[in-house]
Amino acid sequence: MLGKRLFLRIFSYMCIGALCYGSMEVVARGFTHISMGLLGGMCFVFIGLTGFLRRSGRLTLFQQQTVVTMFITVSELLCGMITNLWLGLNVWDYSELPFNFKGQICLPFCMLWFVLSYVGILADEWTISHIFAEYLPNRLHILRLRKITQ
């Protein structure tokens, strides 16, 4: 039974991450690519894993954001090396931006991932409490939209 629940959770996170990131890209750039949806899904799964570590007291919020940012940046580099340089799909090119590495990652987007990681962390908290209907004792206080009565 645990295997089914875990699969459902990971599948749900992949879908939510893919849809959210793909939608953000369409709004920002006017288009997206399926590889970006897959990457967004993987990153949201990772946010969920690190969220568990933060809620259990093993990571602070800042540490979680930092680890998630590094994961996103490394994932973006690997995905870019495959899709853009190896397969030649030219999904994105950061070569005109400062502090870029082979046009696949750059410092301005790395800083953006840090900010967006907080949005992803909030989305993780919301997903757990509203979609999976689980109580989170150590959740972020910003999500307390209604008073919890006991």
Short description:
The chain is 67% helix and 3% strand.
Q: What can you tell me about this protein's structure?
A:
The protein is an all-alpha fold. The chain has a domain at 43-143. Helix content is 67%, strand content 3%. The protein is built from four helices and two strands. It has helices spanning 2-29, 34-55, 61-86, 107-131; strands at residues 100-101, 105-106. A two-stranded antiparallel ribbon has the order 1-2. Helix 1 crosses helix 2 (34-55), helix 2 (34-55) runs antiparallel to helix 3 and helix 2 crosses helix 4. 27% of the residues are buried. The mean pLDDT is 91.
Task: Report the structural category.
Answer: mainly alpha
Mean pLDDT: 91
Q: What does the radius of gyration come to?
A: 17 Å
Number of strands: 2
Number of helices: 4
User: Unreliable runs, pLDDT <50, ≥5 residues?
Assistant: none
Strand order of the largest sheet: 1-2
Principal-axes geometry comes out as globular
- First-last Cα distance: 30 Å
Strand content: under 5%
**Which sequence of SSEs, written as H and E, runs from N to C?**
HHHEEH
Major pleated sheet:
2 strands, antiparallel
Helix content: 55-70%
Q: What is the oligomeric state here?
A: single chain
